[in-house]
Amino acid sequence: MTWQEAVSEKRKRQLASIPQEWTLASLPSKDHLDISVFPDSCGLLTPTELEITRSEIDGLLSKLAKGDWTSVQVTTAFYKRAIIAHQLTNCLTEIFVEKALAKAAECDDYLKQTGKVLGPLHGLPVSLKDQINIKGIESTMGYVSWIGTFAERNAVLVDMLDSLGAVPFVKTNVPQTLMWGETFNNIFGRTCNPHNRSLTSGGSSGGEGALLALRGSPLGIGSDIGGSIRIPSSFCGIYGLRPSHGRVPYAGCVNSMEGQDSIMSVLGPMSNSLSGLKCFMKAVVDAKPWYKDALVIPKAWSEEDYRLVNHGGGKLLCFGILWDDRCVVPNPPIIRALEMTKKALLAAGHKVVDWEPFKHDALSRTSYEIWGAGCDEDYRVVAQISGEPVISTMGPDGNSEPGESKHKGGISAYKLWQVQKQKRDLRQEYLEYWQATQKTTGTGRPVDAIISPVAPYAAPPHGFNRITDYTRIWNVLDYTTLVIPVSKVDRHLDVKKLPHKFYSDRDKDNYDRYDPETFRNAPVAVQIVGRTLEEEAVIGMAEIVDTALKATKSQTASYL
Amino acid sequence: MTWQEAVSEKRKRQLASIPQEWTLASLPSKDHLDISVFPDSCGLLTPTELEITRSEIDGLLSKLAKGDWTSVQVTTAFYKRAIIAHQLTNCLTEIFVEKALAKAAECDDYLKQTGKVLGPLHGLPVSLKDQINIKGIESTMGYVSWIGTFAERNAVLVDMLDSLGAVPFVKTNVPQTLMWGETFNNIFGRTCNPHNRSLTSGGSSGGEGALLALRGSPLGIGSDIGGSIRIPSSFCGIYGLRPSHGRVPYAGCVNSMEGQDSIMSVLGPMSNSLSGLKCFMKAVVDAKPWYKDALVIPKAWSEEDYRLVNHGGGKLLCFGILWDDRCVVPNPPIIRALEMTKKALLAAGHKVVDWEPFKHDALSRTSYEIWGAGCDEDYRVVAQISGEPVISTMGPDGNSEPGESKHKGGISAYKLWQVQKQKRDLRQEYLEYWQATQKTTGTGRPVDAIISPVAPYAAPPHGFNRITDYTRIWNVLDYTTLVIPVSKVDRHLDVKKLPHKFYSDRDKDNYDRYDPETFRNAPVAVQIVGRTLEEEAVIGMAEIVDTALKATKSQTASYL
């Protein structure tokens, strides 16, 4: 069987896994770009299903716990909406309605018989990035070679979600290798941005981004090694958390570059609200994942940290705003999002200072060199099993021009160590740099968190998400980072500026490509960047930022 | 200048740094092997100095805090004793009396003027393994190439010790490269075991081991990547803690194989008592080292964990005893130490079960492969600066036969990742293996801690510490591990056994080499092995084991 035949067979199986009655007879035409309101208006969802899928996660969990809504009802509603989202954006990989509804029914039975919930996520459907193994289901991760390999065990996180009462119900699309900031592979094809289908949903957790933006799931789990949770969260207008390494169990997933122990991929939550991120993190950490995954750090969830006890109780925070990393100047909508955030924080009584970038270019370079040390061989070893080419571009041409990897041949272990040593030193320098801000904040503390762009642009056209430095450097530093949606590209507010003095060709290229019409309707977000393993405090500070932004927006309609 | 000339010049400087009045006119002859009581009887120390250097750390700190003893007095006493120890075992590298006494005087002044202590380690002299940088002092780490390189900055830990009120006062000997379980290099030569100078002090923190065993320091800081704290602690009869990675700040030290991010070296305390280990760990962690070293995990010191709240309050613990790793059977004194520990724990009302080794050979192999990936180039790059050969044996011939490293050329980064992936999987399997013991302990918990040999022998003759698996596998697993001295080799109690069925040539060789006379007077210890980042609980459990052993010993004089 050729790899193309394997793909064709897999696609047929995927199609057959979709219940006929949930497919839409008439879909918006391809040139209908913004399909974000379509699920609400398409008529497939009942009024209750619309209410369910529009609910915030706290409300959902409370109604599930009280039995006001059954898990079968809630799971069905989200499943139907997920299938609608899939037909609009091509966001799903594995669809297993029967298995999910069986688990949902178990939840309902348990509640009925005992009057108790199974756990803090009782009855809640949860979507999973394709790489997260569910027993008996494929995790192709966009590799044709892995079609037909059915997981023998649940990933540790899936077992935990199970114990917490959650209902894993779909898996979502990724780029082949996961090492792209967009979502395209030879098996499932491309995931589009629901706000403008000519734009990318981002990646590598791009299936999650599109699905969640269309409210086809209340909570999704992505992974992030260089921005893979935050880029799609930003591009699709949702919330996403990249925890530090060692907080959320990763064992039992498939992955790229396994054994690369230096800049590690992490799992984290994506949702339509901050409370979605918090309830996942608290539930998982409270369940002591360090007894289930050898790489998880034994560190209990701290409500004290969440209440910002080490940040002056959150009363007078000092944020540093990174306007520009001195490599690529962000486009106007991104600068506007930062300005909105600044204004909102000042209005809420907090302090805001400028955050000067510190060796961001060097930080960025080390990540390329560390991953480049062996990635080419890693990808080829898997791809060659099926004969599928390693994809060399996320552009519309797909893999028609494989070309040669610039990382071909890799480097020696000793050379890798030299780069990793540089990385370690940069992390140390960055810590000292951050600590030194204590002298200037006036709060008695160093800057509490950094507000940073997620990318120097809003979601770009397919194939053009080429600058991932604004997310990637925080992975190198292993800082906790959370994305908050702020606005959408607006051609009146985000007019093109006069050229600045360009840092580089990349910077000029980014300037040249900007045109508000290209990015029409694309969401715009910021990242809240905290310290390593500071998940509780970053969520706490993000709530302050989000509340401040919402307060400003409600006063200034033009920003919406 | 040849490397030999550089050595000669450095040795002259070392000699000149020793105050004349602290040198001994008459030293025991070379065939006087056990010199452990010599410092007490040599006449150089005054009665008060003897009292000071024989004190337990809690008593010392309390007298220093109250001003009963000044820091100058205490530092002088330990310095004199350290110089005696050095003349007997060759344990020191850097000697800086003036600098240390100046800091001690500062402590005294502060206390006098304010009535307060500088910190929890107020006035306490602390010895440091050679690799720990002190501004203005060399850290040759046994490399001739690094003679004449004076540290520009303190290591983070030295700054912290300074703030905590401690007085760094000597640096201690190591093997060239640090990657040996003995202590010999071309600059300072060999450190001997104070209990029997024909035996090794162990390594790589062997200078610390010999110094502390002779009470030439109340607290020493060593490092451990494969046993380098635990081997000398065991061989010299002291207590030593290998914390998990990320608990004690390492930034700013020199090291081997920097950038090797997979199985990392850690710093940890060595002392004559468990309270020495605890007071160091608590003082350092309470000072929030994660704001000073980017690799330290933000995890507060937990008295609750120390009180064993997660281990049933320490009332009925279940220990697993590893009698044999199925690779090399320990010699009779080691088995006796395990038997003594078992008996003591049973007498104290705890449970003891056998701990079956799980893939210890595979764990051991991964560490060799990971370090072997680039170590040869790492060593050569440094050694070739001076032209000094890379030492190829710790035996009496030293580096007379350099030979060729079996790791020559190293491996590719991609191949390294494959081994690191195996390591990760083994860690996960070991966690699951350990968790599964919950079914059989009868306590409702998995085994609380493992009691393991530190090596399959007591301190062997120089050049024969060749089996480091019993310590190294716990580094691969990143488990918290603590060494407790138990007994000494006794030719009546530790008679050679009849041959067993050998696992391998290594096993046979270990059997063949055993003869109680060879190991005369060598200390014997056990390791308490807990989970990753479980420092508090491991210290808490070690206190229970230590107390139980002391109770048994006081009843059974023959064991002493």
Key structural traits:
AS_sf (chains A, B), homodimer, alpha/beta, eleven-stranded mixed β-sheet, about 40% helix, 19 helices, Amidase signature (AS) enzymes, about 550 residues, Amidase_CS (chains A, B), two-stranded antiparallel ribbon, 2 domains, amidase activity (chains A, B)
Notes on the structure:
Two copies of one chain form a homodimer. With 560 residues, the first copy, chain A, is α/β, with parallel strands linked by helices. Chain A folds into two domains: 1-20 and 34-293, Amidase signature (AS) domain (Amidase signature (AS) enzymes), CATH 3.90.1300.10; 307-358 and 446-560, Alpha-Beta Complex (Amidase signature (AS) enzymes). In chain A, 39% of the residues lie in helices and 12% in strands. Chain A contains 19 helices and 15 strands. Chain A has helices at residues 3-16, 38-41, 47-54, 57-66, 71-89, 97-114, 156-163, 206-213, 230-236, 274-286, 303-306, 332-347, 360-372, 375-386, 413-436, 438-441, 469-477, 505-513, 535-555; strands spanning 92-95, 125-129, 167-172, 184-185, 189-190, 192-193, 196-200, 219-224, 239-242, 266-271, 318-321, 351-354, 449-452, 481-488, 523-529. In chain A, the strands form three sheets. Chain A has an eleven-stranded mixed beta sheet with strand order 1-3-2-8-10-9-14-15-13-11-12, sandwiched between helices. In chain A, strands 4-5 form a two-stranded antiparallel ribbon. In chain A, α12 (332-347) links the parallel β11 (318-321) and β12. In chain A, α5 (71-89) runs antiparallel to α6 and α13 (360-372) packs antiparallel against α15 (413-436). Chain A starts with a helix and ends in a 5-residue tail after the last helix. The model of chain A has no long low-confidence stretch (mean pLDDT 96). Chains A and B meet through α15 of A and α15 of B. Chains A, B: The active site is at residues 129, 204, 228. Chains A, B: Substrate binds at residues 178, 204, 225-228.
